[in-house]
Amino acid sequence: MLAELRERFPAAFPTDLSTVRPLALGIREAIEALKIAGRTPVHRVLWLWTRTPAYLAAIAEGRPRVNLDGTDAGTVAAEHQAQAAERLASLRAKGERKAAAAAAAPVVPAAPVPEPAPEPASVAPTGRPVLTLKGRATVTKRTKP
């Protein structure tokens, strides 16, 4: 879905992450009106796009918003800038914690891979197999009185 949006609206969804700009408010409804895809795929791709570090950085920096056609769509509110900066700081801190945990984790040697067990030699059948029923009562034919 993102690839299709990038193809149709390169200014709104650039591949060069240094040129990402915040999307215009109400952009989801504009995309849905074009009947590109159903509501759920559009919602999901926008949810993911607006949570990328590049997008959050664009909002935190206060870059101008963009419409689907690439025209300016206004400025980012100070409240949105603060929220984006907070979320970006949280993501960076999480990344640093993960890196520190990975560096501090003891290196565990890989477990040796056991060799596969040899296959048993095939036994050729020596006649007809015999089926036995152990523990079962035998059925006898009833006679009439």
Shape: elongated
Rg on CA atoms, Å: 33 Å
Largest sheet: none
Helix content: 40-55%
Q: Which whole number gives the mean pLDDT?
A: 85
What this model shows, in words?
The protein is built from 5 helices and no strands. It is mostly helical and 145 residues long. The chain is elongated, with a radius of gyration of 33 Å. The mean pLDDT is 85.
Topology:
Elements: H1 2-8, H2 27-33, H3 39-49, H4 53-61, H5 78-104
Helix pairs in contact: 4-5
Task: Sum this structure up briefly.
The protein has helices spanning 2-8, 27-33, 39-49, 53-61, 78-104. It is mostly helical and 145 residues long.
What are the key terms here?
145 residues, mainly alpha
